[in-house]
Design a protein that fits this description.
The chain is of the alpha/beta class. It has helices spanning 13-28, 42-50, 76-84, 95-109, 123-129, 142-146, 164-175, 189-204, 217-229, 263-281; strands at 2-5, 32-35, 53-56, 66-69, 88-91, 113-117, 136-139, 151-158, 178-183, 207-211, 233-236, 252-257. The strands form three sheets. It has a four-stranded parallel β-sheet, with helices on both faces. A four-stranded parallel β-sheet has the order 3-2-4-5, with helices on both faces. Strand 6, helix 5 and strand 7 (136-139) form a beta-alpha-beta unit. Helix 4 runs parallel beside helix 5. The radius of gyration is 21 Å and the shape is flat. It starts with a strand and ends with a helix. The mean pLDDT is 94. Bound molecules: FE3-S4 cluster (F3S). FE3-S4 cluster (F3S) binds at residues 12-15, 71, 94, 96-97, 160, 188, 190-191, 218, 259. FE3-S4 cluster (F3S) is lined by residues 12-15, 71, 94, 96-97, 160, 188, 190-191, 218, 259. Its EC number is 1.17.7.4. It is an enzyme of class 1 (oxidoreductase). [4Fe-4S] cluster binds at residues 12, 94, 188.
Length: 282
């Protein structure tokens, strides 16, 4: 069985940067925390926990120490609270997420109602939305955009992991709502590139394995686009979840991984698939 790994599988620029910053902060010692998981990889979070980095839900009871801000950002209120408490802040927010936050702030300061295209429950979106100083709406689809009120000036940004198609359809809907429209395509290249590569790989193989956290939006989307082209697509977090039955009659298996999946997990999965193949032949 041939195993084909997508070229750009795994860590994107922002996650790599955040993970490095977190491990460096952990190495320094002292009380170190992250507000929510640093990246959407339970395995990386576990490693950091082993080095003494604790995950907090809120800053409420924290008055001292180092706080690492995760790659997909936090709300402006949380950042202000950390500064007010004079915590040492290691801001690992991905620069692309920061850009979306800044656009929202500037748009609302200049009189635009803001539309954020994304998943309202996702912490990245909640962070982006918190920078609005006026009206702000979150829409996940063009159907939701169709229900928006009429607006004079509309500013649109997207969650970094959104698909271009979805943004395009929401923009079309908004064209019917407002007089003046400004659109910032804040979709991150890393996501699009991974999706395109995964799509072409899914077309060429008999089975696809997508590795990444079940809480990772970009991994979930990667698995979705692969499933559309290759029904034998399976999302896993670790090699232990691989099921030999998935590979029956498979000649080529494609492997890709979400932007928050570390290389060591990808290597373990590839090794395990290869081992299963050997077992099959024995
Ligand atoms: Fe940043 Fe894009 Fe990664 S927004 S965290 S480089 S997926």
């Amino acid at each position: 069985m041939e195993i084909v790994l997508a070229k750009r599988a795994g860590f994107c620029f922002g996650v790599k940067r955040a993970t490095q910053m977190a491990f460096e902060a952990a190495d320094k010692g002292g009380a170190t925390f992250t507000l929510g998981p640093i990246i959407h990889s339970p395995q990386v979070v576990q490693k950091l926990e082993g080095m003494g980095v604790k995950v907090l839900k809120t800053l409420e009871n924290l008055n001292d120490g180092t706080i690492i801000i995760r790659s997909h950002g936090v709300t402006s209120e949380e950042l202000e609270e950390a500064a007010r408490k004079e915590l040492e802040i290691v801001d690992a927010t991905c620069p692309f997420v920061k850009k979306a936050q800044e656009h929202v702030k500037r748009l609302s300061q200049t009189g635009y109602d803001v539309v954020v295209v994304g998943d309202a429950d996702h912490p990245e979106v909640q962070g982006i939305v918190s920078y609005a100083e006026g009206k702000v709406f979150v829409v996940g689809s063009w159907e939701e955009a169709a229900r928006l009120p009429k607006m004079k000036k509309v500013g649109i940004v997207a969650q970094t992991t959104q698909s271009f198609e979805n943004l395009k359809h929401v923009v079309l809907e908004c064209l019917m709502k407002g007089g003046e429209i400004r659109v910032f395509n804040t979709i991150c290249d890393a996501t699009a590139v991974r999706q395109e590569e995964a799509k072409s790989l899914a077309r060429e193989v008999d089975c696809m394995v997508v590795i990444g956290g079940y809480n990772s939006a970009n991994t979930k989307r990667l698995a979705e686009v692969c499933t559309e082209l290759q029904p034998r697509t399976h999302q896993i977090e670790t090699a232990q979840e691989l099921d030999p039955a998935w590979f029956v009659g498979v000649n080529r298996v494609g492997v890709t991984a979400g932007a928050s999946t570390p290389k060591w997990l990808i290597d373990e999965v590839i090794d395990r698939i290869a081992a299963l193949d050997v077992e099959k032949k024995d």
